[in-house]
Amino acid sequence: MTLHARIGEVTERIARRSESSRGQYLERIAIAGERKPNRTKLSCSNLAHGFAACGPGDKAALRGETAPNIGIITAYNDMLSAHQPYQRYPDLIKEAARAAGGVAEVAGGVPAMCDGVTQGQGGMELSLFSRDTIAMAAGIGLSHDMFDAAVYLGICDKIVPGLLIAALTFGHLPAVFIPAGPMPSGMPNPARSKARQLYAERKISWDELLDVEAKSYHAPGTCTFYGTANSNQMLMEIMGLHIPGASFVNPDTPLRDALTRAATSRALAITAQGNEYTPVGAVIDERAIVNGVVGLHATGGSTNHTLHLVAAAKAAGIRLTWDDFADLSEVVPLLARVYPNGKADVNDFHNAGGMQYLMRELLGEGLLHEDVRTAWGSGLSGYLKTPTLGEDGGIVWNEGRTTSGDETVLRPVSDPFSPEGGLALLDGNLGRAVIKVSAVQPEHQVVEAPALIFHSQEELSDAFRAGQLERDFVAVIRFQGPKANGMPELHKLTPTLGVLQDRGYKVALLTDGRMSGASGKVPAAIHVTPEAADGGPIAKLHDGDIVRVDPPRGRLHVFVDQAEFNAREAAVADLSGNEFGLGREMFRMFRANAQPAEMGAGVL
């Protein structure tokens, strides 16, 4: 199928915009990739330190110049359900590496926080900045220069983006990302959402809500809704950094282990010692980035990736903008409905055909670049095969589904849920913002109502409990940007606003903070930039100003005489309460130097 004209136009535009920075990046990784294997340039003392703790066989292999060495970067901890299965992965990877004639060493561990634990808590103010911390921690692990390839063990919200930034910084090394898979389905996500709303109305007790939550988050594996963690897995597969079909196989199953062994073998096969050298910096080019954005739109993926993909692309010398997201959204149909965009979970998505069916449909309409380099060694058409377990315990590759197994979850391009993608860009006299519309019913998408100004989630919750929000309004939660308090997710607001919407009020959220990747049925204009702490227009809003949030027209507007609005003084906020506690004092430098949301909201 011929590439869709818009896909080609946006890709060419990105390439032209990035010509200088991308060229410099490719030159740097080419120089770094000339030395093979890397460890041979180390002094005897350096090298002896590097293999001192290895067993005799691995030590002998690392003394020579032929055995490739994989560096394992792991985000394992056993508090995160998604990451608990990684506990035994290093041993599995080492065994698979030896069987394939190589060696693997744990190069380093990186922090991994659970946004589900920190939602609405002070620790959430470290969440976004943990992405850049993870990238730097991974960089320290790889700085020993002992490795010929790297595998990355990470799944959740900021963890995969941070690992991807690190991988691209060490772009001369081949990279394979190895997932652990989603937990089996538990309490249906809509039932959990309803329970949260009932609790917000004080109609059920804390113990009753906790029982529901524990039945939802009940086992090792990734949470089953389609938030940032599962959007990460979609991205790694559609951008060619997983092996085919790896994203959504449940943990601790024979197929999951077989996929991990296959990923290890593949990482060894694509080092500079062999004939298929595939540095990750060449895999992630403008075409791969566009494929990632297309995947986000087609699945109604997480808004967080309007930050993370921008930051990761920059690490590869590629300049991605929100306008690129918006222009691609106009031509990419929404093909998947997974909670919060629907009632299904990611296990239902996988069983309906999953990534293989999704990519087949998008490729068939010319909406993806097929001619990309991948860790698997093929163009993107190589990702249409589905892995199953053979009688010998190895993987058998089968033709993926050509029809959807459940069109309430996954549809063909000929009959999409929506003709446009799940994310939209808003622009106007209040700045620029991102909004996820795939979960918002059409009748709720446009809200024109008086602004009510709050400087924290708690202020809004207090107003709700006091009965002050029984009306149409746009909730303005400001001083939540990266420079203010680290840009926490404001997911705590979702049940409250959902209750008010269900009562028949027109409600929307406007914030320079973030919402969870699971943001749902209430329209939320987020990542507003410039942020209030930078004196952005959002800081000049007053209670009662009429604000219009209008995704179909891409508009974000306040109806105040422009001269009067410009003459207003920007509000200021006392942010001293955000400076200490739960580690926030250690991230003062990050807040002071954070880039705007549209540039990735990081410090790297």
From TrEMBL:
Domain Dihydroxy-acid/6-phosphogluconate dehydratase C-terminal: 409-601
GO MF annotation list: 4 iron, 4 sulfur cluster binding; metal ion binding; phosphogluconate dehydratase activity
Signal peptide bounds: none
Cofactors that this protein relies on: [4Fe-4S] cluster
Occurrences of domain Dihydroxy-acid/6-phosphogluconate dehydratase N-terminal (ranges): 68-380
Domain of life: Bacteria
Ranges in coiled-coil conformation: none
Entry binding sites for [4Fe-4S] cluster: C156, C223
GO annotation, biological process: D-gluconate metabolic process; Entner-Doudoroff pathway through 6-phosphogluconate
Enzyme Commission code(s) on record: 4.2.1.12
Co-factor remark: Binds 1 [4Fe-4S] cluster.
PROSITE patterns named in the record: ILVD_EDD_1, ILVD_EDD_2
Pathway in which this enzyme or protein is active: Carbohydrate metabolism; Entner-Doudoroff pathway
InterPro entries cross-referenced by the UniProt entry: 6-phosphgluc_deHydtase, Dihydro-acid_dehy_C, DiOHA_6PGluconate_deHydtase_CS, ILV_EDD_C, ILV_EDD_N, IlvD/EDD_N
Catalytic activity: 6-phospho-D-gluconate = 2-dehydro-3-deoxy-6-phospho-D-gluconate + H2O
GO CC terms in record: cytosol
A Pfam family that the UniProt record links to this protein: ILVD_EDD_N
This protein's UniProt keywords: 4Fe-4S, Carbohydrate metabolism, Gluconate utilization, Iron, Iron-sulfur, Lyase, Metal-binding
Function: Catalyzes the dehydration of 6-phospho-D-gluconate to 2-dehydro-3-deoxy-6-phospho-D-gluconate.
PANTHER family registered for this protein in UniProt: D-XYLONATE DEHYDRATASE, PHOSPHOGLUCONATE DEHYDRATASE
Entry similarity comment: Belongs to the IlvD/Edd family.
Protein name per Swiss-Prot or TrEMBL: Phosphogluconate dehydratase
Organism whose genome encodes this protein: Bauldia litoralis
